């Protein structure tokens, strides 16, 4: 039989008017700003004016990603639709996709098959303009910084110590390292510069961690853009840029409301990368979803060692959130890849490869259960090629950890394929109480916090801090940033900082290359391995296959 593509499924869906979705989410019409018939921004005043109690918060995370795919967003949406089908009042809170991966190799991030948020083309492209606003605010600060230097440099900024980059929401490797200000005195001061992708901008992290306009403005003011000749930090506040930047972001901070294919309300807002920043949707959208549903399903980017660790250690800590349960998504195919099988061999039953690969899943599950002390369930995204023996093997191994495994077929069956998972999630929330604990406390040195994540979450032996990073840590501690959480920037393909170490590697150390402060976001970014803040396009980018027909209908997006 011929399968429909994700975009064909999405375009064949009969969407409900966004006012109807808002009503389902208990949002009064006075808080809605419509962007056409199927998207809306929600006034944050709703958070202060509602008397609804918070619902249950469920985090969906996954094993270490592989090219075989895991289906985390798809599971998040299908689980929400499954909860709705069994009569629960449910909302979803997701990140917005970046244009870079949409046109690159990964594709969009609106789910897949019969578990999607719609209108998927809008969500994957310009949506409500949030990312453009973030890019504009980022680049306004860059312009004001260089203008300050051009107009006499009263703050004494050393152009060799500027840390603020420009940004664009596109995979464009050509812009990673540039020299600008060329062409003589009238055209600025020549210096080395560079671009990040918009989702890697600190402003994205700031927007996602702010809980009000006032908090947003204060966080923007604290952003450090560079250092003076005598190594004093220079902030956005000193450049007097925070007010104008907040003006650009005043609408972007409002959460967006859309719907799943089955009409479940979905708050889709913000989108920092999880291998660079903290990889979660906005605090305001999560809090709004929690108020408007009895169950809120959210996700964090990449594997549980990245997205879930940062969701729990950074976002939950800053926002005062306590998750009620965690879903760890896995596929038989991906686990066999962790066991050393090539992508072309995944269709064959191979219990030996599965046995070699399953420690990856077990370590993630153990972290959720034993490090963070949260109730947990494994969701196996079932593919037609998975055999009963392989499924039984996973169920037995997870049972040894005291965790149930549930099969999910949400890609093919939508909410119906998520009902079993929904029932287990309800059981966890009602019968198993967690004792939520962070993987480290904020007191203690920066190195101690990094080491705690590496040892407790990654399963490593410790860290090697390069001399340059040692110097940076000493400077940050001298500036009073010791008590910030750490945001680990590392490869998403391994527990270690080496993407080739699959499964659950042991006897490894993680090398710390650079340590920098995101003072507005309120965390310390720790760079390991070869992490790029500006991706490049692949040899055959997805953009080559995207088109628009004569009626304005987008094709080939997925």
Helix/strand structural class? alpha/beta
Write down the overall geometry: globular
Number of helices: 19
Query: Separation of termini?
Result: 19 Å
Classify the helix fraction into a percent range.
25-40%
- DSSP, total strands: 25
Strand content: 15-25%
The stretches of 5 or more residues where confidence is low (pLDDT under 50) are none
Biggest β-sheet, characterized? 12 strands, mixed
Integer-rounded radius of gyration: 23 Å
Name the average pLDDT: 94
Task: Describe this structure in a few short sentences.
With 558 residues, the protein is an alpha/beta fold. It is built from 19 helices and 25 strands. The model has no long low-confidence stretch (mean pLDDT 94).
Task: Describe the fold and architecture.
The protein is an alpha/beta fold. The strands form six sheets. Strands 1, 2, 3, 4, 5, 6, 14, 15, 16, 17, 18 and 19 form a twelve-stranded mixed sheet that branches. It has a four-stranded mixed sheet with strand order 20-22-23-21. A three-stranded antiparallel sheet has the order 7-12-13, with helices on one face. Helix 4 packs across helix 17 and helix 7 (130-150) packs antiparallel against helix 10 (242-249). The longest helix has 21 residues, at 130-150. It is globular. The two termini are 19 Å apart.
